[in-house]
Design goal:
mainly alpha; two-stranded antiparallel ribbon
C-alpha cells in the first residue's frame, strides 16, 4: 500500500495496487484521474470569464520587447503597463518639467505690489492730463488779461506766474503800464478842468505813486530795467506838467520834494540793475536829460531832483571813460561801481 497524490489540494487516498492479472486498460479505468489529466480537462472546460481574466499569449513574445529601454508587462514587474502590451520606452518624448515652486511663491508675494503700481500709474496719467488742461486754461486766462490791459492789476501770485511763463513779459507789462499811466494822468487833468480848480500836488503825487510797485516789478524782469527807467521819469514828468509851480505854496513844494525823493530811491535800484545787465546805452545823454529838468525846478525852489541817481550815473560814466572822480582819484583805476 502506498499513498497516491490525487490533486492540487495535496490530498492523498489509499489505493491498493491492482492485481497483476488485470489488464492495463482496466487499471486505467479504475485508477483516479491524475493531476495532469485533470489540468488538461480544466483547461478545456474553463469558463469564458476565466479566459478573459487570464488571457494567455497566442504567440511567444519577441525578444525585441526586452531590448534596452523597454520593460515587459506581467506580474513580475508590478503590473506596469497593459496586459500583453509593451511599455513605451522611457526616452521617448520630452519629460514634463517640474513646477517651479519658488517662482510661484515669489509671483504670489509681489502681486499686491504690482497691482498697486499699476493703479498709481493710472492715477499719474490722469493727473498729467488734468495738469495739461489747467495749463491750457491758464494760458487762455493770461491772454484774456493781456487783451484788456489788466496785467498791472492782477494779484501778485498771478503776476509772478505771468511774468515767468509769458514770452516778452517785460515788453507786455511796460506797454500796459505806460498806457495806464497815460490814462490816469489824462483823467486827472480832465477832472481838474471840470472842477475849475487845481488838484493839489499831494493828491496828484499819490495817484502817480500807485504805479511804483508795478514799475519795480518790471525792473526785475529780463530787459525790464530800461523800460522801468523811462516809466519812472514819466511819473516825474506828469507831476511837472500838473502846474501850480508858481504858487509858492510850501505844502505843495514839500509834497513835490517827497514825491521826487521816492522816485529817486526807486530809480537808483533801476539804474543799478540796468548797469548790471551790461546794456549799451547812452548814459551821458540821460544825465543831461535829468539835469535839464532839475535846473527848471530849481527856479521854483524845488531841489534836489534825482540826486542819488545822477551820482550813480556820473560815477559809471567816469569809470568807463577813466576820468577823474570828485576826490581826484581816477575812476578808471579805482573800484568799479557796485550794483545789486
Amino acid at each position: 500500500m502506498f499513498f497516491k497524490r490525487r490533486s492540487r489540494a495535496n490530498s492523498y487516498i489509499d489505493n491498493e495496487p491492482p492485481p497483476r492479472s488485470q489488464s492495463y486498460d482496466d487499471y486505467e479505468k479504475q485508477r483516479p484521474d491524475s493531476s495532469s489529466t485533470r489540468e488538461k480537462h480544466q483547461q478545456h472546460v474553463s469558463s469564458p470569464i476565466e479566459e478573459d481574466m487570464y488571457p494567455r499569449p497566442q504567440q511567444p513574445q519577441e525578444p525585441q520587447q526586452f531590448s534596452r529601454g523597454v520593460i515587459p508587462s506581467g506580474p513580475m514587474n508590478g503590473g506596469m503597463g497593459g496586459m500583453g502590451q509593451p511599455t513605451p520606452p522611457l526616452s521617448s518624448g520630452k519629460p514634463e518639467p517640474m513646477p517651479d515652486l519658488l517662482a510661484q511663491a515669489f509671483n504670489q508675494a509681489v502681486r499686491p505690489y504690482t497691482e498697486k503700481i499699476e493703479q498709481l500709474e493710472s492715477q499719474l496719467a490722469d493727473m498729467q492730463a488734468w495738469i495739461e488742461q489747467l495749463e491750457q486754461q491758464r494760458a487762455e486766462v493770461h491772454g484774456w488779461i493781456d487783451k484788456r490791459g489788466l496785467r498791472p492789476d492782477v494779484p501778485p501770485s498771478i503776476a509772478k506766474i505771468m511774468d515767468t511763463t509769458t514770452p516778452d513779459a517785460a515788453v507786455t507789462l511796460n506797454a500796459q503800464l505806460d498806457r495806464k499811466i497815460t490814462i490816469v494822468n489824462f483823467d486827472l487833468h480832465r477832472l481838474q478842468d471840470d472842477l475849475n480848480d487845481s488838484i493839489s500836488s499831494a493828491h496828484f503825487a499819490s495817484a502817480m505813486l500807485k504805479f511804483l510797485p508795478d514799475i519795480q516789478r518790471l525792473a526785475l524782469l529780463p530787459n525790464g530795467p530800461r523800460h522801468a527807467f523811462d516809466l519812472v521819469l514819466k511819473l516825474g514828468g506828469n507831476l511837472n506838467s500838473h502846474g501850480g509851480l508858481d504858487n509858492g505854496d510850501d505844502d505843495d513844494i514839500n509834497a513835490r520834494r517827497d514825491f521826487y525823493g521816492r522816485l529817486d530811491a526807486a530809480m537808483v535800484d533801476v539804474v543799478s540793475r540796468r548797469f548790471g545787465e551790461g546794456e549799451e546805452w547812452n548814459v551821458a545823454r540821460e544825465i543831461k536829460r535829468i539835469e535839464k529838468t532839475a535846473q527848471y525846478l530849481v527856479t521854483f525852489g524845488i531841489k534836489p531832483y534825482f540826486p542819488d541817481t545822477l551820482d550813480l550815473m556820473r560815477r559809471e560814466v567816469g569809470y568807463q571813460s577813466g576820468g577823474q572822480g570828485p576826490n581826484g582819484v581816477p575812476n578808471g583805476g579805482g573800484e568799479p561801481p557796485r550794483y545789486h
